[in-house]
Specification:
about 270 residues, mainly alpha, two-stranded antiparallel sheet, 2 strands
């Protein structure tokens, strides 16, 4: 791949591919981890007490904890390597999701050593739980289905919004495109995950005796508040990453913007 209209030296080309591999690996590894951990446990962030409604608990799934790192990784790839490579990594992430589901499905249908009931189903223990793998499998299916839908929407929105702000500001104001793209995409992701997890996977710890809509809003608010907080924090690492990596890789992130604007001017 040619950057800045020049062919890089072999050493610089190797640096660029290594850094790309690290960023893509961070993105894909985090994605695989959160899909397996997913909704296996919910963590209480804080509790608010209201006299009219009682305690309102803000909680997030354990799989949400590393998820903001995926947006930092794609933002760095977008800034340093361009939109095509960022979209390519997002597409590979979709394939990874499908691979995780396939392995879980295959591991579940192959014969094992579990005790079977008279009807041929896997026996549950005294607490009504399946063996560990099958419990994880059920939760992973729900988490991956939810994340696949949300993932595609959110990650492509993130890449699109990142380059929209980059083009609009002519490559200036890193904080705007970093936060602007992530905050919009995280909202899309959070809403999609919560709705799919509840209506498809039936895995949210909700109280069926209370209004479901209000509880879903709390889960959405909890997840988005956490992601919003982390997104604002990652502005510092993003600035540092772009500053040092652009020098180390000898990449000028503004070149893509200048070429795009030049192309548009010629079309007009």
């Amino acid at each position: 791949m040619i950057f800045n209209n020049t062919t890089p030296s072999p050493e610089i080309a190797q640096r660029r591919e290594r850094v790309f591999l690290i960023l893509a690996g961070l993105f894909l590894g985090t994605l695989a981890m959160l899909n397996i951990l997913g909704i296996s446990r919910f963590i209480k962030l804080f509790t608010l007490n209201f006299e009219s409604t009682g305690d309102i608990v803000f909680a997030v799934a354990v799989g949400v904890l590393p998820y903001p790192l995926t947006f930092l990784a794609t933002d760095l790839i977008s800034e340093l390597y361009g939109r095509k490579r960022a979209n390519f990594v997002v597409f590979v992430g979709l394939i990874l999701n499908l691979w995780v589901m396939f392995i879980m499905w295959l591991g579940g249908i192959m014969p094992g050593f579990e005790t079977l009931t008279a009807s041929g189903e896997i026996a549950r223990d005294a607490a009504g739980r399946l063996p560990i793998f099958h419990e994880v499998r059920a939760l992973t299916f729900g988490a991956v289905t939810a994340s696949m839908i949300a993932y595609l929407a959110a990650q492509f929105v993130d890449v699109y919004m990142f380059h929209f702000w980059k083009k609009l500001t002519k490559g200036k104001h890193l904080w705007l495109r970093n936060n602007g793209s992530t905050l919009v995409s995280q909202l899309v992701d959070t809403v999609a995950v919560i709705l799919v997890t509840h209506y498809y996977a039936k895995a949210l710890p909700v109280d069926m005796a209370k209004p479901i809509f209000n509880q879903l809003l709390i889960f959405i608010a909890s997840g988005y508040t956490f992601k919003l907080f982390v997104a604002l924090i990652d502005t510092g690492p993003f600035y540092l990453g772009v500053h040092y990596l652009s020098r180390y890789l000898e990449i000028d992130p503004l070149v893509d913007v200048e070429l795009e604007l030049s192309a548009e001017g010629q079309e007009k």
